[in-house]
Specification:
The structure is a homodimer. With about 400 residues, the first copy, chain A, is of the alpha/beta class. The first copy, chain A, has three domains: about 70 residues, Winged helix-like DNA-binding domain superfamily/Winged helix DNA-binding domain (Arc Repressor Mutant, subunit A), CATH 1.10.10; about 130 residues, ATPase, nucleotide binding domain (Nucleotidyltransferase, domain 5, 2-Layer Sandwich), CATH 3.30.420.40; about 160 residues, ATPase, nucleotide binding domain (Nucleotidyltransferase, domain 5, 2-Layer Sandwich), CATH 3.30.420. Chain A is built from twelve helices and 15 strands. In chain A, the strands form four sheets. Chain A has a five-stranded mixed sheet with strand order 5-4-3-6-10. A five-stranded mixed sheet of chain A has the order 13-12-11-14-15, sandwiched between helices. In chain A, a hairpin with a 2-residue loop joins strand 12 and strand 13. At the A-B interface, strand 12 and helix 10 of A face strand 12 and helix 10 of B. Chain A binds a DNA duplex (30 and 30 nucleotides) through helix 3.
Chain lengths: ~400, ~400
Amino acid sequence: MPRRTPPRAPITSPAAATVFELLLTQGPISRVEVARRTGLSSAAVTKAARPFIAAGYLEELASGERVGPGAGRPASPLAIRPDREYFVGIKITGDDLIGVVTDLRAEVRASRHHALGGHDVGHVVSAVAELVTELLESGDFRERTHCLGVALSGDVDRESGQVRYSPFLGWRDVPLAELLEDATGLTLTLENDVKALTIAEQWFGEGVGASTFALVTVGAGIGSGLVVNGGLVSGAHGVAGEIGHVPVAAGPLCHCGGTGCVEAIASTEAIVARARLVTGEPGLTMDQAVDRARAGDLAVRDVFAQAGHAIGLGLAALVNLFGPERVVVSGEGLSAFDLFEDQLRQAFAAQAFGSAARCGLALRPLPFEEWARGAAAVAVQSLFSPGQP
Amino acid sequence: MPRRTPPRAPITSPAAATVFELLLTQGPISRVEVARRTGLSSAAVTKAARPFIAAGYLEELASGERVGPGAGRPASPLAIRPDREYFVGIKITGDDLIGVVTDLRAEVRASRHHALGGHDVGHVVSAVAELVTELLESGDFRERTHCLGVALSGDVDRESGQVRYSPFLGWRDVPLAELLEDATGLTLTLENDVKALTIAEQWFGEGVGASTFALVTVGAGIGSGLVVNGGLVSGAHGVAGEIGHVPVAAGPLCHCGGTGCVEAIASTEAIVARARLVTGEPGLTMDQAVDRARAGDLAVRDVFAQAGHAIGLGLAALVNLFGPERVVVSGEGLSAFDLFEDQLRQAFAAQAFGSAARCGLALRPLPFEEWARGAAAVAVQSLFSPGQP
DNA sequence: AATAAATTCTTGACGAAGTTAATTTATGCT
DNA sequence: AGCATAAATTAACTTCGTCAAGAATTTATT
C-alpha cells in the first residue's frame, strides 16, 4: 500500500462522505435537498457539513431563486469551493508524460506535455517528479496540493500502488506509488488509465447520477470501464471491460488469440493495416487514411464503416448484458468519428435488445489531456471516498 | 408493493442480517470465525446470534474436531436449523405449474407438477392456490410456512409484485403478488425466473462466496443472471443479462431483429430448425435430433457443434466484460450437453482474454423442479435480507 | 494433581453516528 | 405588525457496535 498516509479531509463519518460526494458531483444543493437525496435527516446534514465549511471546502451560497409555494425561510445552498485544494494528475504512455493540475471539481487549471526519454524506472520517476514540480510552479498551487494521481495502461494494483505489468513500459511489479511519493512528497493514487477515465466520467462527467454506466475508449486498443450499481467492475482475475476482445465477426485473427475481436477490426492498427491492403500502399498512415476517406475514397471509407459496425456490435453486446443508463464512447480513434458514427449507431440500434436500446450513446473525441484529468479525478476520489479501494 | 407485511425473522440490526446470511449460506461456523469473516467484533456476533437461537433459527453444535495449535476452549459452531421454517416456490410456465416446498437452506422437501389449463389471470391464481394447498398438505408444513416465491419468465417488478409483461401468458400489468397473497394467505415474492435461479445459485449453489458470478440458461431461450460485487444486475431499463442476443456470427437473423445472436443459433428452436434443414425432414423433433446426433449423424452433430461454438463465444464475451469468478451453464438445453460441451469449451478458451479464462465454467443439466426451487430461494432471501429489493 | 497457557465466548460500560422533536431563523403574504 | 411557511439548528435520545475485562473450557507442563 502507499506508504504515505493520505491527508484526510474532514470526513468524520460515512454520512459526511456521502454528503460531500453529492455536493462535489451534483453542484450546489440546499441542506434539505441533500437530506432528501441521501436519505439522511436534515439534522445529520447540518452536522456533516459544518466541519467542511469550517475547513473551507464548502461554503453557503446566498439563497437563490425561490421555487416552491413562495413562503418560508429561503434555502442557502451548500457549494464546493473548488480552489480549496488542487490535484496533480499524470498519464504515462510509452512515449510521453501528460500532466495537469486540477481543482476539487477536476477542472483543469494547468497542463504540460513532456516527451519521455526512456523506459527505465528511475528515469520515469525523475521525469514525473520534474513534471510535477513544473506544474506546481506554473501557478499558485504548491501549498494547496497534497495528492497526485497517476494513470497508465496495464495491470495496476491501486491498493498496493504497484504496477504489476505494463506492456508499453516493459515493467513488471514496480512499486511506483512508493517511489513517486518519495520523489514528490505527495500522496499518490495509482490507477489503470481506462478505469481512471471511467471514474472521472462517473464523478464529473456523463456518468453523474447514473448508477450503471460504461465508458468505451477507441484508439490503439479498445477497452472499457464499467460501473454497475455505483461500483467500478474489476473482474475476479483482474480482467474486466475487455470489449475489445468481444467476438463480433467470423473473420480476422486477433493478437490475443481470438477471432473476430472488435479490436482486430477497429483498433488504429487494424484500420491502418486494412487501409494499406485496400489501397495497395504499404506506407499509408492513419492520418492519410482519414484524409483519403474524407476525400471520398470508397474502399477506405468502407474500412472505417466496418470498424464502426464492429464497435456498434460490441456496444450492443455490452448493453444487452448489463443495461447501463448511458454509454460514452471516446478515445483518440474518435477524432475521425464522422467516418464511422453512422455505421456504429446503426449496428448498435439493430442489435440492442428491446428497451436496452434506450440507453444513451454519446460519442465524443478525447482531448489528450483528458487522460491526465482522469488521473487527477482518481486522486480526488481517494481523498474523499475512503470506501473505494 | 406486496400488501402483506412480511413476517420478520429476528433481524434486529444490519449485523444480525450479515451474520445470519453467512451462516445460512456457508454452513456451521464458530462465532470467532464469523467475526473474522464479517469484520465484526466477536461480541457483536454473540449479540446478533442470541435472538436467532432463542427463536429456533440457529443452534449451537457440539464442538467439532479441533484444528489449530491444540489448547483453548473448543469452538461451538453456530448452525442453521433448516426445519425452523418452510417455503413454497412455484414456477409458472405457459403450459404448467411446478411447485416445491423447501426448508431454510432451500433443500426441496416436497414437489408437485400440474398442467395449466388456461392463461387467464383468475384461472392461474386459483390453480396456484390449489397447488400451494396441496403442497402444504403433503407433509407437516403448514404452520411453519409463511412465504411463497413465484417465478415466471418475462418482465416482472419484484418491488410492486406486478407482472409487467409476460409473453407466454399474454399478460400485461397484472398485480399477481396481491392476488396470490389474498388467495393463499402467504407473503409473496415475485421474481423473474432467470433472476430467481441466479439468486438460488448465489445463496445456495455455485455462487456461494463469489462476489461476482454468472448463471446462463440454455433452452427455448438463452439468458443469464449476473451478480456483480454481490448484487444482481438489473439494467437501467429492465434489460440485463441478455447473452442470447449477443452477436457472435455473421449469419442468421434473430427474431429480435438482430443478426447472429447466440439465440438464433443455439436455442432449442434454432437447433431444431437447422436439424430439419440438414436432414431434409420437416417433422424432426428435438429429441429425434439428439438421437440422430448421438447415433453419429455428422450433419446433425455439426448443428449441435455450432450451437456449442456460439454459446462458447457468448460466454467469452460475458467473461471478457465482467470477469466473474465462476459461470454456471444450465437449462433444459443442457440435457444434451454431451453434444456440444467440447465445442463450447474450446470456443470459450480461445476467445476468453488473458486471465479471464481462469474463470470456472460449470456445465450442468437443470432438473425441472430447480426453477421452482429458485422461486423458493427468492422467498428465503426476502425474508432474511431486507436490503435486497 | 495443580498450575499455566491458550482459545472461545460473554458481559457491561462506553462511544460514535444518526434520529426525532422542539426551537430558532428568515422570508412572503395580508 | 402579525401570521404562515419552510429551512436550519439544537439538544435529548436511540441504536448499534466496539472495547476491555473476565468467565469458560480445553491442552500442556511441572
